[in-house]
């Protein structure tokens, strides 16, 4: 240090001071503003990025809420459609059952009518046959003159036996 103080030169000091001030002036004029501007721009970029991230976060929350609402609405629509389908199915089954019951009732009624008409026809036929047999028996009895009741009874039984064949 002593040597520095002993070698001190005022001229050298002056020129060093002038160069130093000149460098500071040049730095302030040409380098300082661009450095500060780039730092401000970077700070603004970071602020904008944080704001964009916050906006994206809010948008995601809104999208999730709207997706959940849409999913709920879709579930409600699905449940409504299933309910409608069940009602239609039950209605179709009940209509088909009613139609089948009506058809069965008609078939049964027509079968009963057919049976009744066949029964009436059979009874009419039987009555006709009985009447014919009675007329035949009476005719045969009147043709023959019989004096005994035993002979008459035997003849009636014989004629009935022939009629059953």
At a glance:
Helices cover 94% and strands 0% of the residues. It has helices at residues 2-6, 10-143, 149-164.
Approximately how much helix is present in the residues?
over 70%
Mean of residue pLDDT values: 86
Provide the low-confidence segments as ranges. none
Number of strands: 0
Bin the strand percentage.
Answer: under 5%
Q: Rg from C-alpha positions?
A: 64 Å
Q: Give the overall form.
A: rod-shaped
Task: Name the structural class.
Answer: mainly alpha
Oligomer: single chain
The arrangement of helices and strands along the chain is HHH
State the major sheet: none
What is the terminal-to-terminal distance?
Answer: 167 Å
Number of helices: 3
Written description of the protein model:
The protein is an all-alpha fold. It contains three helices and no strands. The longest helix has 134 residues, at 10-143.
Key structural traits:
165 residues; 94% helix; 3 helices; mainly alpha
What is the topology?
Layout: H1 2-6, H2 10-143, H3 149-164
């Amino acid at each position: 240090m002593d040597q520095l103080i002993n070698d001190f030169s005022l001229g050298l000091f002056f020129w060093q001071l002038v160069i130093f001030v000149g460098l500071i002036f040049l730095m302030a004029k040409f380098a300082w503003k661009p450095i500060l501007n780039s730092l401000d721009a970077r700070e603004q970029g970071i602020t904008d990025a944080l704001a964009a991230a916050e906006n994206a976060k809010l948008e995601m929350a809104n999208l999730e809420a709207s997706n959940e609402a849409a999913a709920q609405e879709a579930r409600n629509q699905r449940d409504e459609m299933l309910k409608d389908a069940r009602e239609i199915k039950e209605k179709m089954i009940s209509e088909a059952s009613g139609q089948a019951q009506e058809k069965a009732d008609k078939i049964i009624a027509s079968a009963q009518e057919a049976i009744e008409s066949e029964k009436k026809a059979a009874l009419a036929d039987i009555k006709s046959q009985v009447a014919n047999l009675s007329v035949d028996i009476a005719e045969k009895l009147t043709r023959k003159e019989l004096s005994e009741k035993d002979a008459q009874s035997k003849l009636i039984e014989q004629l009935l036996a022939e009629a059953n064949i």
